Amino acid sequence: MVGVVNIRRDVDDKFYRYRMPELLTKIEGKGNGIKTVIPNMSDVARALSRPPSYPTKFFGCELGAQTTLDEKKDRYIVNGAHQADRLRELLFGFIDKFVLCGACRNPETDLIIVKNKETRSEDIIRECKACGASTAVDMRHKLTPYIVKNPPTTNKKGKKGEGASSNGAHAVATNPNLPDAEGSEGDDDPSAAAESLPVESSLANEGWSVDTSEDAVKARVKDLSTKLQTTLIADEDSDEDANSPYSQLGQWAEANRDEVNAVEVYKHAQEMGIEKKHKTVQVLAQALFTKNMPSEISKFAPLFAKMNAQSEKHQKAFLGGLERLIGVMHPELVPSVPKILMQFYQADALEEEVIKQWGTHVSKKYVDKETSKMVRKASEPFLKWLDEADDDDSEDEE
């Protein structure tokens, strides 16, 4: 489930009026083609009343990376592998420079592009609907030329372009209310003056005011409950949901398994708020290992020892992940099943009783029945060793 954070990072009040979804990232590709996809950039940008291309381009400017903007597919990409925390920090930098009012620090602002009479250049102004102040954006930033060249506009037919009025940022040729703005013909004509004023954004008209009536509150609570239930179902049951935190964690782990260690993987899951979920170990079991798994286990065994210690459910989900990894993704590992189980058993990532129960009960929960039988059949030498070890212990006690 996507978290919600305050738009201003210096405000800790959980009841702060201006909030936005927490930025999510997903690593895709490998080698020179690796890239960071931002699946909820549109949602974040909508909360900021800015076009999604602006913060995406801001990331590219700050990181020295190329960006890809695909509005039709709602897909925003920054080349290279970038941690979510790093991009979230940069997002707050974008907010400070291009969203918050320079006078009252309120995010209810529109971007206005004006012609500077003295320099004959174009400036970007943050016009605040809260305090009425018009404060200038620092034009030295690398993003400003992009905003000037790609202003959010609405044509005469009302067709919205990128960052049109629904995004809350507007461009006008001149602004007669500012001292450095160039005047235009027809300033004395009321209709001409009206046309030069920025068009109110739909978000400004409907998003900043909240209906607090009893019926409205009940409706919002009902809507929130429905959305929450849908999200939890998607997270728990759908492996194909590309926006679920499990899918994102799997993509990240697969892309970074050679560079990260067990502690870093755990911290990343912790940042996503899913380090205690049993499905997390199932996903990591499939994402952190390759066909060379027997030689890779020692690197991540402490991670699974810590996470699987939470419950038998975690261990069973982990074994389910191993079934899929070995039986479906890398069938060449089937002969190595006893060695693999031995390593996790010795690392305290799996308990004896859980392994025995798993090895003697075929299940179709994670793979098809035939694959399940094949993997369990391969585990028989290890199960036999466990039984013999128990017999030896009994004889010693006698």
Automatic annotation (TrEMBL):
Region entry Disordered, spans: 144-214
A Pfam family it matches: eIF-5_eIF-2B
Xref: PROSITE patterns: W2
UniProt record, GO biological process: formation of cytoplasmic translation initiation complex
Gene3D superfamilies named among the record's database cross-references: 1.25.40.180, 2.20.25.350, 3.30.30.170
Keyword Amino-acid biosynthesis in record: no
GO annotations of cellular component type: cytosol
W2 domain location: 239-396
Keywords: GTP-binding, Initiation factor, Nucleotide-binding, Protein biosynthesis
GO molecular function: eukaryotic initiation factor eIF2 binding; GDP-dissociation inhibitor activity; GTP binding; translation initiation factor activity
Family: Belongs to the eIF-2-beta/eIF-5 family.
Name of the molecule in the record: W2 domain-containing protein
